[in-house]
Amino acid sequence: MAQYIALLRGINVGGKKIIKMADLRLLLSDAGFMAVKTYIQSGNVIFETDINKAEIGAVIGGLIEKSFGFLPRIFILDLAAISLIAFCSKLIRLYLTAGHTAGDTPASSNYLQILTN
What is the mean pLDDT of the chain? Predict the structure, then answer.
């Protein structure tokens, strides 16, 4: 079973498109998603599933639309994407902490090459 993060955009903002995270966890758990966890009222959900990655967004979107009456934008990230984001974030912090701007040192081109490839 693979682990994913779903990012639900535009929910719980300004009192519109409200989804309580307890309700979202229950909805996904009842639909067969495993180890479902949410982060505050953000609409960020971590879960495990055997569903094909390309289909997960449509499945979750359909569940939300049926239960809550609207279809949010949904981004699905797998562990590889999450790891890459975390790695790049660390490189960017390292680069910025060193106090360099692009072109300052030969090493800066290495950072930029890593970040853009």
Answer: 85
pTM of the model: 0.73
Nearest to 25 by CA among 10, 46, 4, 7: 46
Residue 17 per-residue DSSP state: S
Contact 67, 60 (CB under 8 A): no
Sheet holding 34-39, edge to edge: 34-39, 44-49, 2-9, 73-78
For residue 5, the SS3 value is strand
What is the Cα–Cα distance from 81 to 5, expressed in whole angstroms? 10
Q: Could you tell me which residues are beta bridge partners of residue 59?
A: none
- Ramachandran angles phi, psi of 94, nearest 5°: -60, -45
Question: For 2-35, how does the pLDDT look when each residue is reduced to its tens digit (9 = 90+)?
Answer: 999 999 999 998 889 999 999 999 999 999 999 9
- H-helix or E-strand spanning residue 73: strand 73-78
- Give dist(CA 49, CA 61) in Å, integer: 15
